[in-house]
Specification:
Layout lengths: L7 H9 L13 H5 L9 E7 L4 E7 L3 E8 L5 E8 L17 H16 L8
Antiparallel strand pairs: 1-2, 2-3, 3-4
Amino acid sequence: GLTEFVDIAPTLCEFAGIPVPDYFEGVSLKPVWDNPKIIIRTSALSQYPRGGLKYMGYSIRTTQFRYTKWIETSTGKTVESELYDYFSDPLETKNLIEEFRYDSAMMSLDSLLVRRIESPSVKTPY
């Protein structure tokens, strides 16, 4: 299933039988360990610097897609976008961002990504 790095600490706390501090981000993955069919998240956010800190890449990953926006940190402008469909291209060999048939998926993923960037808290999983 989809996870984020911030899910590690709550998961370890739950396995250790200690309370998860309120200030921890993320959610415990123990329910998935107990039942792999449980879905904790429908998307996962990640962030990558490129060119030192000149650009920041923000990605949203779903079961089917990974959508990434590369943002110039000095201006906040998007300089490049990527969209990959894991159902048809699990190795991410073809960027589909220019393909019209993916416009709806791209707009939906972009909206979700913007919401996550603006409010990255994952106390309530997306």
